[in-house]
Amino acid sequence: MIQFTGIDEIVAIRREIHAHPELCYEEHRTAALVEKKLKEWGIECTTGVGKTGVVGSIKSGTSSKTIGLRADMDALPMQEENNFAHRSRHDGKMHGCGHDGHTAILLAAAKHLSENRNFDGTVRFIFQPAEEGGAGAKAMIEDGLFERFPCDAVFGLHNWPGMPEGSFGYRAGPLMASSNVFRINIRGKGGHAAAPQDSADPVPVIAQLVQALQTVVSRNIRPIDAAVLSITQIHAGTASNVIPDHGWIGGAVRAFTDEVVDLIEARMNKLAAQIAEAFSCTSEVIFERRYPALVNSEAETKLCAEVMRSLYGEEKSAEYVFEHEPVMPSEDFSFMLQEKPGCYVFLGNGDGSHRQPDHGLGPCLLHNPSYDFNDNLLGIGASFWVRLTEKYLG
Questions:
Q1: ∠ CA 334-339-344 to the nearest 5 degrees?
Q2: Pairing outcome for strands 53-60 and 44-49
Q3: What is the four-CA torsion angle of 158, 149, 62, 393, rounded to 10 degrees?
Q4: Is-above-0.90 flag for pTM?
Q5: Which of 41, 103, 112, 119 has the least C-beta neighbours within 10 A?
C-alpha cells in the first residue's frame, strides 16, 4: 500500500465536499474545487464536460496508450441525520452514497501520479456529475468525452458498506443490474359508489394487475435469470363515495440482460391490456429504460484483481480480495462500459466502526441518513488507482 504524503489534505477535501452537497448537474462548487486542486498539482484540466463534469489529464513518456479513471461527484436529495462538524450545510441534500469519498480518492491518486510519473502513456481523471438518476456518464459521452479525451479502457469504483474495511470485490461480466421504471395508467368511467353498474371501475383492474404482475418473474423468467419487479405506487380516487375514472400504478424493474427486460415489458403490456379490457377499461404502459446493466470486460477485470492482490500480498489477499456476487442496484458507469472495455469494483466501507459518536442512528448503509464515508479508505482506494495506472501503462 502506498504511503501518501498530505493525506490530511485529502481528508479535509472529502469532508469539505460532504459539508456542501450538490445534486445532479448542480455540482458547480465541487467541480470548482476539483479544478482548483488539479491545477495546483500541475494537471491539465477541462471543465463543463457533460454540463458540470471535469476531466484532468497527465501524459508521461511516449506511449499512446490511455487509461480513464472515473469518480462521481453528486449527492442525494435526502436529509442528513448526523451531527458531526462536516455534516451537510444544506437541508434536503446529503452525500449519502460516498461520492464525496470517490472524488477525494481520485484527487489523491491524481496528486500522486502528477508527482510520481512512473508510467508511460496518458491517464484521464474523469469527475462525473449526476450519477444519482441523472445519467451524467451518458451526458459526458454525448458531450464528446471519448472523442475529446480518448481512453483505451475505463475504470470505476464504489465504496460498499458491509464488506470488510479496505477489501476489494470484483466480477467479470454483469455486476450491477439495469434500472428501469414503469407507470401503468388505467382509464375507465367514473360514477357514484352506490351505482357501480353505471361505471367502468379502474380500481378492480389495478387490484388484479398488481397480483398478475407478481407472476411475471416467478412464472415467465427462467429461475437462473435474476430479475426484480417491484410495484411501489398505487394511486386512484379522491373520495369514499366516488368511483374514479382513472388510476395508476408505478414501480421499478431490475435485471442483468436486455432480453429479460424485453420479456418483462412485453408481459406487462399484455397483462395490462387484457385485464383492463376484461373490466371495460383501457390501459397505457409507460416503460422507461434508465441505466443499462453494468457489465465488466474479462481482461480488465483480471487486471484489476491482479492489482488488488499486489496491494495486499499473497497472504492477505485471500482475506481482502474476492469475487463479488452480482447486485441489484444500478450504476450509470454502465454507459461508459458500453463504449469502452473496463471494470467497476467495490471497495469495502467496513462495518460502521469508523462512525463517530455524533453519527445518527445506524446502520451505516448507502442512501441512509446516518451514512458517512470511511476516511480510512482514501489511501487504499488511491493506492489502487495508482498501481492500476502504473500496471496498465507499464
A1: 40
A2: antiparallel
A3: 20
A4: yes
A5: 41
